[in-house]
Please model this.
Amino acid sequence: MNLIHDIPTLRQALAGHTQRAFVPTMGNLHDGHLALVRQAKAALGSAPGLVVTSIFVNRLQFAPHEDFDQYPRTLERDCELLQAAGCDIVFAPDEQTLYPEPQTYKVHPPAELADILEGHFRPGFFVGVCTVVAKLFNIVQPSIALFGKKDYQQLMVLRQMVRQLAMPVEIMAGETTRSDVGLALSSRNSYLSVAEKDEALSLSQTLRQLLARWQAGERDLQALEAEAMAQLRAQGWQPDYVVLRRQHDLGAPLEHTPLVALAAAKLGATRLIDNLELAAPAPITP
Ligand code: PAF
Model:
């Protein structure tokens, strides 16, 4: 495996390899990232190709009060894990390499998708994500790029960006990897105390209950969402949102469309997100 920090060396290493499966990350890797790397390798199949992972903590997607400075940087360990998972190239640029001048050209995703939920509570977040991902796509020029469903809204925003800007890359989604007890893996889980790790499970349990009540026929969505938020508050969380939405555009739920329950909440000082999909009920055939 090749560890590369600058763009000319990366371009040289990529030359001649047209099939490139790309996994963009901010490092501090866990099994969820490694599952994406293995999925990338499988997606290339027997065709000669390269799996490229980028590691870059992108300042543009952090608000000034957020955890940019504390975000764990663990490059050496990340490289060991990536090598074992079958990655061919790690691209780990520093800020000067990716942003040698102020990044004044930015990708602004549409408000109806990017200013809701995460974008509402983290203004500018998706501008930062889209800008860095578009830039990384220009540098790596991947044929496939993989993103986890754990960041569900990010996946939808990036899919739409690629589609609307006709970027020549296929976006593939990876399922959320969970611990044995069901906690969605996240780099930010490392901020949690032992007690908080136990409590963190309540986030996915709350989502499961919300989906179960919807499936049981309850349709007062405002009440369902408000009760889910109240339950989290009673358990010591500070929820930003618990909602049920359509999968493809995160709009209000409709009958017979695939839905997704999404939540973001703070536990102590740590903000966690999670989501669970609900397939559309199969049509009744005579
Ligand atoms: O999901 C992440 O880790 C980041 O948002 C990404 C896609 C690597 C962009 O910085």
Notes: The pocket of pantoate is lined by residues 24-26, 58, 61, 129, 132-133, 151, 154 (CB under 6 Å). DSSP finds eleven helices and nine strands in the chain. The longest helix spans residues 125-140.
